[in-house]
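My main concern about presentation is that the manuscript never shows what a single data entry looks like. An entry of this sort, consisting of the sequence and the corresponding backbone structure tokens, reads as follows:
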Amino acid sequence: MKTTNMLLIILGILIFFVSLLGGGLLFKLPIPGIFLSIFWVLGIILVVLGLELNQKEKKSK
């Protein structure tokens, strides 16, 4: 797994969980709800992108 793919996955998981927990599950961030939803989706997209790039890298070897 390349470092770029791993960073995308870690960043995506971090953004996802901070937005999920900060949306009121554990604590309340002073950010409007639409931005938390955007960050939630962005986190999922980054994780999927990192995993997809990792799969392409494995297939090319």
Notes: Residues 3-60 form one domain.
